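User:
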Amino acid sequence: MAGYIVVHEGDFARVLRTLDPGYDVAFFDGSAPSRPLLKEMRRLLRARGLLISANLTHTGAEAYLAALQDKKTWLTAFIDEEHETALSIKL
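Assistant: Predicted structure:
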């Protein structure tokens, strides 16, 4: 898969701002996800791109979780009963 996958290392919020849009998949597994981080990841994903989000039950993730459930912008499914992790397609 070399040449197809790019892994960016560093402080999540800082690295996001340096990237150009057009990603097929983004994965969030940091601390509590925030609405500004979701907005930045949405900017980076292409239409119909996949966002994998973890830590959705952490304190402070409520706004992020609510935004993922906006059916005008995301198609979201949870992969566990606790709604800790979600798969979301950018609409």
